[in-house]
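Changelog-linked ticket: manganese (II) ion example.
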Amino acid sequence: MPFEQLLKSIPHKFTPEEQARLERALAFSKLAHEGQKRKSGEEYISHPIEAAIILGQIFPDATSLAAVLLHDVTEDTEKTLVDIKKEFGEEVAGLVDGVSKLGKVRLRNSKDPQYMETLRKMFIATSKDVRVMMIKLADRLHNIRTLAHLPEDKQTKIATETLEMYAPIAARLGINTWKDELEDLSFSIVDPTAFKQTHDLLTDEMAKRQGSIKSLEKELGHVLRTEGTKFIEISGRTKRVYSLYKKLMKNTGDISKIYDMYALRIMTKSTADCYAVLGAIHQHFHPLPGRIKDYISTPKPNGYQSLHTTVFDTTGSAFEIQIRTDLMHEEAERGVAAHWFYSQSGKVSNSVDSRLGWINELRNWQENTTNAEDFIESLKIDFFRDRIFVLTPKGDVKDLPSGATVIDFAFSVHSDLGYFMMGGKVNNKMVKLTHELEQGDVVEILKSKQPVKISRDWLAAAKTSNARSRIRQYLNEHDKGIIQRVRELKLKDFSLPTFFRKK
Ligand code: MN
């Protein structure tokens, strides 16, 4: 794909400098991946390009787009991070590095929810910068769209990982368009039978309701116009297959309990108009008790805002109606990426700080970011200041305090590994055992056949109580051993009178 076409596929006006940088990134990546093919037979470069187009739809930030174009270069080609840093600067190199570290977080065969949570935390902590997560999600979305060319077992593995790890992260970042697509695509691969059943159920139900949807939409428009209530437009959305499936599972398969299979959406210009619309609707349609939800005054943890109500139409069937401003709608679709969009266009949402409750729990969100640079700065979050997450070569996650060293890592894997360790590798490079680990490091311990001699330095370098107590235990026994041996030696070497020996 020529550069001009890539540029046209992203709905954003880049500055001439940004354009030049993106063009260089594309050329650099093209050259580096030259001759490589995807499983589909396409040139490899098609993948970073498509991922860039995906990211560009919701987050057209030139630095992130340069990074997504380069995201597979360090893993799959001769070019290194140093080359990228030289060509594109520290920021782009940092993003590429983060993305390749994230790629090492793999889902193991475990259904333990605690494990899933650690894994997601690891994913987030490794990113540090929310842009890394967005790049990785765009990468995964393109991969899952083009999964058909892989062997079946690999497809299942990637789809499961996507459903369990990537989709929940997209949800937490509030990027619902991505979450929806990630979920439905991977669900159709993980459980094709359930997918088809749910899909058919949805299609049937929608066909049955088609007539009443049309008339309700008309009626609503009429009501709002005659009441003089301001609104931008009325539209509708059908529930997603995976989301319906999850709800059916909760409701023991009773489809009559699901009111939002189809929802009508009313968009307004202001929050006040949202409440006015709700009032007008309730005057004309009977609301279902207990189904009125005010997510404007109390947003969902991922920042979602809307008013929800469920009403009965004249035929007696229930429909959910969602009322929101155009800004709230933008945020519901793009989540965290929407803030960037607003800060660029000068439209700043009035409650940036309340938007990402979940992230807020983990750090102090910079309040009222007013320009794009501040916003980018605020994305560089150190979510888990006191913890680091590192990986074994097989991709198992170890959760350690920050400042932890190779020694802590070894003892966290197994005490035997600690007592037998003769060297350590971090990200494939030999390091000292006292080497401090960093977020996302892949750590490998070289084991000797014999127990090694542990020095007192280890105690100073160990941060975890587990490693420290193991080392102390060793040193104590070792000391006892020396005293014992000295005693024995003394007894042998000096021919003391026998009554002395008895003592
Ligand atoms: Mn990739």
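Closing comment: Example verified and attached. The two ends are 90 Å apart (CA to CA). Residues 47, 71-72, 139 surround manganese (II) ion (CB under 6 Å).
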